[in-house]
Design brief:
The chain is an alpha+beta fold and about 260 residues long. The protein is built from seven helices and eight strands. The chain has a four-stranded antiparallel beta sheet with strand order 3-1-2-8. Strands 5-6-4-7 form a four-stranded antiparallel beta sheet. A hairpin with a 3-residue loop joins strand 1 and strand 2. Helix 1 packs antiparallel against helix 2 and helix 1 packs parallel to helix 3.
Amino acid sequence: MAVDGYPVGSPPGRQAHRRIRMGRQWLQKHREINAAKRGKITGKLVREISVAAKSGSADPTMNAQLAVAVEAARKASVPNDTIKRAINKGAGIGGEKLELELVTFEGFAPHKVPVIVECLTDNRNRTAPDIRVLFRLGQLGAKVRFFFDRVGLIEATHDSADLDPEEAAIEAGAQDLEPLEEEPEQGSGARFFTDPTDLDAVTKALGEAGWRVSASDIGFRPKETIELEGEPLAEVEAFLEALDDNDDVHRIYAALA
């Protein structure tokens, strides 16, 4: 989701991914929806709903990832009929099937920043050349996955400022956490990390404890991050934003501090 989560940082100028100051998920960067990108962001939100429905139950009360995707779509003013069609498509209800596949690309952004790009596409023969062009200032095809851990990523906020996020993480079963790049004006906020198999359970536990979950997905967390400043940082951010603008790009993970 473009700008995020996921998640999409959102995924992210200097303040933020994806989107993760500790190796941001780029889609968490720009949460605001502007008129120019509304249609594109809506399309990505709808695809996230379909993918979540395909991977689990079509009932949001039984599928935490789907519940988060639906809530994000509602906040973006996606019509209820569109949300329902996306759920049915992902679940294969009504005869319409989801014809998307997840294609993952690895490589380096400028200045040797490891990047993993996940795309949802109905035509990999269209997507692959597009990604190749977008990587012209980087290096596509380099194996960088060993720079990352595969984890569950949950972003959540709570109305109370007196909560101890570490205690909340322990009680919910999360393995680690870090602060959000943009803390809520009032209350608490954190990004929780889990084992991928625990994502749904931890998401539900946080919700039952009063946390508002804004992102819940399985993704990548960098083991170490690269710090850049000035022009090099601007070049990497421009590279990542160009990737995020591609309609097929679903998630971007960069080992950028």
